[in-house]
Amino acid sequence: MKKWSMVLYGCLSLCLFSCKEKKAQPDDTGSTGTIHISVDESFKPIIEEQIQVFQSTFPKAKIIAHYKPEADCWNDLLNDSIRLVIVTKKITPEEARYYADSLGLYPQSDLLASDAVALVVNRNAPDSVFTKEEVAGMLLGTGKLPYKLVFDGVKATSTVRYAIDSILKGKLFNTSTITAAKSSSEVVEYIAETPGYIGFVGVSWIGNPEDSKQLELLKKVRIAWLPCDSCEEANTYTKPWQEDILTKRYPYTREIYYVLKENHVGLGKAFVNFMNSDRGQLIFRRGYLVPARRIFIMRETQLKLVKPVKQ
User: Fold this and answer.
1) Domain named PBP: which ranges (predicted)?
2) pLDDT tens sequence across 243-276
3) Of 27, 122, 148, 217, which is least packed with CB atoms within 10 Å of its CB?
4) Domain presence at residue 150
5) CA-to-CA distance for 259 and 74, rounded, in angstroms?
6) Is the separation of the CB atoms in 82 and 37 below 8 Å?
């Protein structure tokens, strides 16, 4: 009797151990299912278009994007429901090891495209040309120009981090001169309604001349001119045009990265592969950003007007 009790106990222990070790299987594939992703809010217009085209190609797939400050996207990597984040910073090997220790898998990260931080002013503003020293002075509160600044939040956003890391080289800006809006679209609307302010937004919100909504916004605001970083002629200014983002003549360029934690061939990998494909890279290009994975050629052309042929 004792022998059979020990056998029964061993069987029960094996069953309990097997149940404990068994993990839930993913219910998505490369073309079916539903996943949630977190995206830096400053990239919303271009990522929305990527998702729309991807889902039209794979009707049984659904990608639910949550647009939020960049710091929240990084925090979401520790959340089981978020497998993919799209941010402005590539994950470092140290960060990847940290997430691997926490999550049990090693995240992948790479470049998708390049964009820029645009400065926008009210249509009636007397100035729309600024030096980098003037921009830094306004951020530090030491400048002589009478403008206040508007960001998509005062902390935790990629635009704020860019201003501190890349424009001020690590210095903290003077928050007394900063107004915080809830989103990039609210930044543009605030500038349109309030003279005397300069807004900082991702160029995908304001730089596409083929987007009817952005054209309407450009009737209310202007994109500021900034010094060209590598132009041969002195005192040359530029805007965040596609060619000047590509050549980095525009001074405030930055990158778009993905970070993926997925150990099976699921929707996360499929969406990343799509954004890196010819179609996905063309969407970045047509959104007036610079694709990272496909050859991007700029050619100078000369157009000659001719009279139409009479029929």
Assistant:
1) 29-279
2) 999 999 999 999 999 999 998 889 999 999 999 9
3) 27
4) yes
5) 9
6) yes
